[in-house]
Predict the 3D structure of the following.
Amino acid sequence: MICIYCKSESVGSKEHVLQKSLGGNLGIRDVCGACNRAFSSIDQSLAENSLPGLMRVGVTKAGTFNVRLGGDHFRLNDADFWEEVRIVNGMQAIVLPQIHLVGIQENGQSRMAVVAGEQDELKSFIALVSEKVADGTIQDTHIKTGPSPQDTTPRLVGYRSDGLFVRAASTADGESFLKLLAGAWSALRAQVETGSQQELQVVHQPTILVTQRMRIDDNYRAVAKTAFNVLATKRGPSFVLRPEFDPLRDYIRGLALVHKQPLAPGEIAVDTRFVQMLRFGEVPLVPTGSHAVIIVYTAPALLAFVTLYSKYSFVVRLAEIELREQIIEAHEFSIDRTNNTALTMSDLAQRLWETQDKGRE
């Protein structure tokens, strides 16, 4: 087959029309493996580090598939220091296993606090730290500085079963903390392992600090890719291989981003030639409770309207092209990998009619 993105002859790989991480379950095989792998980063950016990504974590129920919000997130505990948390399905804040330096005792010994959300995670965390202290690699742990004010207490955090990092106000503070931890580890480990298992603590209305770094260019490229995939599904690979789509193709692949210069004060450098976001909550062109894409052609503009999680809508300029017919194609996708449906003109009319009725009520 010929890849619809790089136009190379290759063996097709499965590309999800709407990202699987957003709940998509429809695949095409007109994308080569190299392009498919290259798109993983922008798909992840849209799913975990975007405004729709924030909605994704809120509405994806536990038991469907596991989701997480990208970035660094913190919970203020009863002792007034920040705990590292992971935000997952249903906006749950799961406390990561971590060790905090909370003070120095009168005898000069460091005072540390061990925190974890689950007992099994704590056991794995303790075993991993013990391994790294024993082989001397604990000092090689990656140190994250800031963001303030979450860095008031240095801490060692287990962010996955085989990964650690230190959070501290400075690299020097992080290195000093690691030395203290290595020296006190035997006593601290014995204290943790002989201590009684704590019951699960439920914190009502906790203070959560969410920090995200959003790569808006990546988010917009991922939205454009979804629209282009839908177009390929509806019109076939030979249609989207036309040269009129080459500028969009290069944009999605990240080969030709254009940023306006100079920027106005406070303006973010974003390539908006192909994708623009509508106001949050604005009634989408296709009223939906999940995701929807509608492709509309009015000579010479071929446009796509992409709605994610019913609230976030984007306009994608697919191409300036001469066609002999008008086009209106629509497709709806579930948020839980269970369903996708082509929408007919009758479906669209009925939904618009129902939306107008609700507006009049």
Notes: Confidence is low (pLDDT under 50) at residues 196-200.
